Amino acid sequence: MIKLHIFHTGSVKVDQSIPLHERNPLAVTGLFRGKEKKRVLPVSCYLIEHPRGRILIDTGWDTKFAHERPKEWFGMVDKISAPIIGERDGIDSKLASLGLKDNDIDAVYLSHMDFDHASGIRLVKNAKAFYASKEEIADAKKSKFRYVDTWSGIAEIGAFEYQETGIGPVGKSYDVFADGSVVLVSIPGHSHGIFAVKISVGDKYVILANDGAYVQESFEKKIIPGFTVDNDLAAKSLEWLCTCREDGNCIEVLANHDPGVKEHVVEL
Ligand SMILES: [Zn+2]
């Protein structure tokens, strides 16, 4: 049996152009935009309790943002993607609510290394291992504007490599336990290295879409994320997520920032 815990580690305040991919390129910064265009969306992380280990997908916000604002780029980072989190809303508290500590986690896999997914690393720094895709780590080294480095000196993030498996929108994936039960599926678009997670038992499965889709409307109206490195790939990845959503064997497709998704547990 596999148990999937869906946690919310605070929220993120963004311009609606981020979930809804509006054409105005300046809109994602929130500059010259009214307050009514702001949306507060949950920031999810996931614990997978698998017979062969406990895996965390993403780490959410660092709880230090309960007391301070991010200062990067003269406060622009805070304007684009503002953390909202309480002292007890971090991934460490979520694990503690299950009687777990960070050293009970066998591996943390970062779906991608954006601030809202990776800044919580500090809270689980004693996890046994940290990984992100080779592509994501390369981009995080290159783009100091997009990626806020919240891991250096705290955790060593190892690179995993996608294999050509024919699985997913670009036919690439990485099988965590080499048994098909937890597969990281390459869904490029929002970033080059991002993955969705397919968690299966028999024919039934759940998909963690991560930021391949932001909210319900993303699936219903085929809206790609507002921030992308490649719109065509983002559309292809979203299409694949939509196909999974329509499959009778698929229990749920969960978008990371969807306010319609509440904290819950799925047993497979
Ligand atoms: Zn995100």
Please give a structural write-up.
This protein is α/β, with parallel strands linked by helices and 268 residues long. The protein has a single domain (3-262), classed as Metallo-beta-lactamase, Chain A, CATH 3.60.15. 18% of the residues lie in helices and 30% in strands. The protein is built from seven helices and 14 strands. The protein has helices at 17-20, 76-80, 91-96, 115-118, 134-142, 216-220, 231-246; strands spanning 3-15, 38-50, 53-57, 82-84, 107-109, 130-133, 157-160, 163-164, 172-175, 182-186, 195-201, 204-210, 250-255, 264-267. The strands form two sheets. Strands 1, 2, 3, 4, 5, 6, 7 and 14 form an eight-stranded mixed sheet that branches. A six-stranded mixed sheet has the order 8-9-10-11-12-13, with helices on one face. β10 and β11 (195-201) form a beta hairpin. The chain is globular and about 50 Å long. Bound molecules: zinc ion. The site of zinc ion (ZN) has 6 residues, from α4.
Fold blueprint:
Blueprint: E1 3-15, H1 17-20, E2 38-50, E3 53-57, H2 76-80, E4 82-84, H3 91-96, E5 107-109, H4 115-118, E6 130-133, H5 134-142, E7 157-160, E8 163-164, E9 172-175, E10 182-186, E11 195-201, E12 204-210, H6 216-220, H7 231-246, E13 250-255, E14 264-267
Parallel strand pairs: 3-5, 5-6, 6-7, 12-13
Antiparallel strand pairs: 1-2, 1-4, 1-14, 2-3, 8-9, 9-10, 10-11, 11-12
The structure holds zinc ion.
The site of zinc ion (ZN) has 6 residues, from helix 4.
